[in-house]
Give the backbone structure.
Amino acid sequence: MANAPSIPSRYVIIISDCHLSAGRFVDGHLNPHEDFHFDDDMSDMIDYFSSGNYGDGVEVELFINGDFLDYLNVPVQGEFEDAITEDMSLSKTELILAGHPKVCEAFKRFASKPGKKITYLIGNHDADLFFESVRERITRAWDPDGAFPSQKVKLIADTDRVNLGQGVEVRHGNQFEAGAVLNFEKPLLTDFLDKPVLNIPWGSVYVLKIINRLRWERDYIHNVRPIKVLVIFGMILDPWFTLKFAFLSVFYFLKTRFIWSPKRRSSLKVTAEILKQETHFFLDLEREARGLLDQNPEMKTIIFGHTHRPMNKVYPDGKQYINTGTWTRMINMDWRSFGSPAHRRTFAYIQFQGDQTRCELRHWVGEHAPHAVFDG
């Protein structure tokens, strides 16, 4: 009896929260706002999943689950403006693409191979993708033929979730944090304005006006999770800076939540939810993930990013929550996992074969050069 032909596999590789901004150097000067220093490793990983066992027309989807590009970390003429126009977003896009040419070339090589495609789901640090011209610019940069629309590169900005099939769903996860919720119904503000501006949440203002300003004094502040633990210890160990941080946070929160402006929107309901969530020390989205798994009997695996905390939780009923974590350096002050590695190059690995699905959290380990940037 002849052996039955094997069923070909389809793979999805999911990465998120890499926060590529304008590169290590801008205008000949070291860029203090760049958090991503793994261009060679990222390029190696992208090439790996389009060659060898993953080459020769094998279906592989590279799924970017939000905050891969970090527009909040790219100044415009030296300023972090919170009224973000299309022209500003396009300028930041050019800086990001120029700042990470190896990664962009790796994407283009990947997309040029048979059976390979790239999908990008928006997050709260790359809300600039709401502008179609920005999506077009990135698509043309990564498509092997510079095409738009593209059959190989798809940037999604009209939903916060993608169903991969067979009970696997992907979301960035920011929609569960009140201060980071994007308005997919009204992503741009146009009332009383000459040009549309992005309808950004409080969390984006917090990064633009507070974190990016204070990291010149404490270059680690943007890497600490959870920030509330830093404040507690800071009142003892670094009181003057901590008081400044607290004052700016309260000032901008009151200004953006209780003073009307045509350049932003706020509601008392969302403000109340933000304040409620501030009473919680930790945000790992596990409760929210488990809620989604319970709501939908067909859902087997839910995959988030956003929190920068890698997780692979398998429950007694066989359902699974994966968080893809981050590739950037983090200072972990969460005592539930205190002492664990602060950052690893994590990604979700999914294999579909027939009606079988295999989902894992993995991390990239590779050697590409005799030396690399010291990252703390």
Remarks:
- The mean pLDDT is 90.
